Amino acid sequence: MPTLIIGTRGSKLALYQAEAVKKAFEKELPEIDFEIKVIDTKGDKVLDKPLSQIGDKGIFTAEIEKELLDGTIDFAVHSLKDLPSELPNNLRVSAVLPRAEFRDCLVSKNAKSLSELTENEIIATSSLRRRAQLLHFNPKLNVVDIRGNVNTRLQKFDDNYCTSMIMASAGLQRLGFDNRISAILNEDEFIPAACQGVIAIETCSQNSDAEYVTRFINDIDTWNASFAERLFLKMVDGGCKTPFGCYTKMTKTEFFIKAFISMPDGSNYIVHQDTQSADNAHLAAYNTAKYLLNNGGKEILQELRIVSNNNL
Asked: What is the reported pTM?
């Protein structure tokens, strides 16, 4: 079998994730050679605009997926939360690694918890989901946009661009920046993105060798939880222009999901949770998405589409 190529973005975090996949493959399949190829994406190139203004679906994945379809790479490695709910024809998520920390965290010069954030803070985030929850928590908070990879954001923080940031805990922990975390945010108080903390391996259905070898590294518990969350993501279908999120917990007998949707300013904040048996995880996700949509979520999506179309 020839060398198999793993495609990834070029940030330190993306390379960490690709290396984690490569090591997982090498542990299970030492007879196969694996190499990493770096690919630039639109989300990496356009750094002077908020994510919600430079596109919607696939801003961190489209260029990598093109090489997957062209056959120049065998696997694409992504943060699963960056993957749109609808993938291009012939592409699929074939495996996920064990989930890391799924919660958001606070990085702050002054505060040790959300309750300590005041109007005097300058709080930076690149996420409408995080912005909406901050403003729902306290409408007077001063929330600003920040772009760039983990290292770039930390440098901006050190250069006094802001006094606090909300970030994904997993990204900081994977790069050895645990000491930068002021507090990991309780998931009931601050709901994460769907599939946050999950590393995904995407393949093309026309590459049977690549699809076959992914089964050796797939973590089934993470797989089951992630795809319930992706069902919720698909049903809400808000893209990066709509603030929403969810988190799940699974035991041997039960599956729990909690989710929200709101306007970007934190108003019309709708939250719901559901519990089903472990073998009915998708039903819990379905019920939760339907509740949110039927209790104000459809109106939020419609209003945001109108605003988006008017800004084109």
From this structure: 0.90
